[in-house]
Amino acid sequence: MKDANDFLYLHFSIIEDDMRHDLDSGLLRGWRLPALIALLSALAFLPFLGSVHLFEWDECNFAECSREMLVTENYLRVHIDYRPFWEKPPLFFWMQAASMKAFGVNEYAARFPNAVAGVVASVVLFLVGAKLFDRRFGVLWALAYAGSLLPHFYFRSGIIDPWFNLFMLLGVVFLFRRYAEPERRYAWLLAAGGVVGLATLTKGPVGFLLPSLAWFVVALIRKYPFKAWILDAVVYSAASLVAASLWFGIETIQNGFWFVETFVHYQIRLLTTGDAGHSQPFYYHFLVVLVGCFPASTLVFLALKKNDADESSQRDFKLWMVVLLAVVLVVFTVVKTKIVHYSSLTYYPVAFLAAYALRRLLAGDLRWRGWNTWLIPSIGVWFGLVLLALPIIGLRADEIMPYVKDRFARANLQADAGWTGWETLIGGAFIGVVVAGTILAAKRRVVTAFFLLFGSTILLLNLTLPVILPKVERYTQGATIDFYKEMRGEEAYIYPLGFKSYGYLFYSRKPPELSPVAVGVPEEDWKEHLLYGEIERPAYFVMRNTHAEKYDTLDELTTFREKNGWVIMRRAATTP
To answer: 27, 203, 314, 562: which sits with the fewest CB atoms below 10 Å from its CB?
Structure first.
């Protein structure tokens, strides 16, 4: 063991020594380094985007909204199942629709906009970090973000949050610049309001709320003059309103206030109720950030220590990041609906604090603690064990099934996922990397340890996406998506019973004539109409096996297929 420790120490320590030198000379001077970061980010985020189907609910939901934009050629109002979808504004769907125009209606196109956001975010973090500290810090911030689990994974997804969070981060950066460059006060306020308005166009008023609330808290801490702050807030809010009105205003003028009013009511419901069963303990988001942002999250507490050597602008920006982190955690702790990605804006300040800690460790003015060392394996090994266990469970599913009490889960395990056993190398290798990082950190080669961890996390996710996730998906939704794809072009209705789904809309490529709107049946009556009404086409009902017995007594329904816990029942057309 001693020899292994010495090997790691000697052969990796050169990385840390090199990082003690600036990156302002040689081949990486000027624009070359941000260009290299963009290229490496593209290589990290763009491959394998289409290697696994879109997951329920959000990925399928958003991709279907974008697909229906193309089908209906209505780009001003978002639709789902060809009826108005008032939960989200359209900016992200415009991006997805443009991507689908370029790449076709598929998984790669649905996720491509967020991969682009990953490239843009990496360059933005470098440029902001380099402006505040130096180019080395910019590299550390970009790497800490791209090399942590959930931050990296979100750029490989088809959900709204990556662009939403990037716009909000830019809003915070521009608000900070208003005080760093007071001579350009109004230019920065207008820029901040503009990008926050784009955030509002991406997901809703929370895009305005979070940066504004962080600004208000910083203003209280720094005791900014109240009258000047009010004037600034008016300019900033006006710019945000103008940007958001690019769609909200046009929608209201064209169709009245109903759509916007319904949208606002929905946002209030999310904030005040546990919507869609997403009620979680109060500490939920704290745990998500700590575990999901590994390995960057293990450095956050170390970074909070005050540093008198920082310049005033550096101290101020650190305050903005700490406040932003706290505001997001507090807001979504109070909010009743708790979903993993709701707190994803925290990933930027977490990565900033990780980079800040690494910078101080490089400078030698921050001491690494023993408890920090043990925090690395306590989180990282857990992830490795999960990845290691998945193929083992898949290969031994027959032996495990008798011990699984839930009938649906037991049937899921019957899926032929195609495990070979080689997949265990991914989880095993990651555990090895975490152990190596722990050893290096214990030897005070902390920056080397985190370069190893960040780089390995990027590699891990690039292997997990094409190798492990498609096999896991066979258990969760493989049978249903196979059926939906088979039904493309069929003149038949499909309806999920007992569970919420958007996958049947996207993967069956549902045409407008099969929607409740075209048939002339209200949405709330659609299920009853398909089960008991007069239908001119056959109807297929998808349900879990635990739910199927509820419909076994209906003479009109026959079992069409049963596979991996999913039951598909068919009702024949009642009219010619």
So the answer is: 27
**Pair 246, 292 in one domain:** no
Task: Give the Cβ contact number of residue 547 at 10 Å.
Answer: 17
Burial of residue 545, with CB atoms counted within 10 A of its CB: 0-12 exposed, 13-18 middle, 19 or more buried: middle
Structural domain containing residue 342? 273-367
Does residue 285 sit in the same domain as residue 255?
A: no
pLDDT tens for each residue of 524-561: 999 999 999 999 999 999 999 999 988 888 888 999 99
325 touches 259 (CB < 8 A): no
Largest CA distance in the chain: 82
pLDDT for position 296:
96
Measured CA to CA, the distance from residue 245 to residue 228 in angstroms comes to 26
pLDDT at 517 over 80: yes
Report long-range pairs for 82-85 (Cβ below 8 Å, ≥24 apart). 82/512, 82/515, 82/517, 82/518, 83/515, 83/516, 83/517, 83/523, 84/259
Q: How far apart are CA 514 and CA 520, in angstroms?
A: 10
Domain's final residue, options 476, 494, 519: 476
Q: Is 8 helix (H, G, I), strand (E, B) or coil?
A: helix
Cβ atoms < 10 Å from Cβ of 558? 10
R_g (Cα) of the chain, nearest Å = 26
Backbone angles phi, psi at 558, to 5 degrees: -125, 145
Query: Residue 122 burial by CB count (10 A; 0-12/13-18/19+): exposed, middle or buried?
Result: buried
Q: Is 358 in contact with 296 (CB distance < 8 Å)?
A: no
pLDDT band of residue 30 (cuts 50, 70, 90) is confident
- Tell me the H-state helices in 135-180: 135-146, 149-154, 161-180
Q: Name the band, by pLDDT with cuts 50, 70 and 90, for residue 57.
A: confident
Q: What is the pTM of this model?
A: 0.93
Average pLDDT of the chain is 90
Q: Would you tell me how many other CB atoms lie within 10 Å of the CB of residue 115? A: 22
Judge if 490 and 472 occupy the same domain.
no
Six-digit token pair at 179? 């005080």
**150 shares a domain with 38:** yes
Please report whether residue 362 resides in a domain. yes
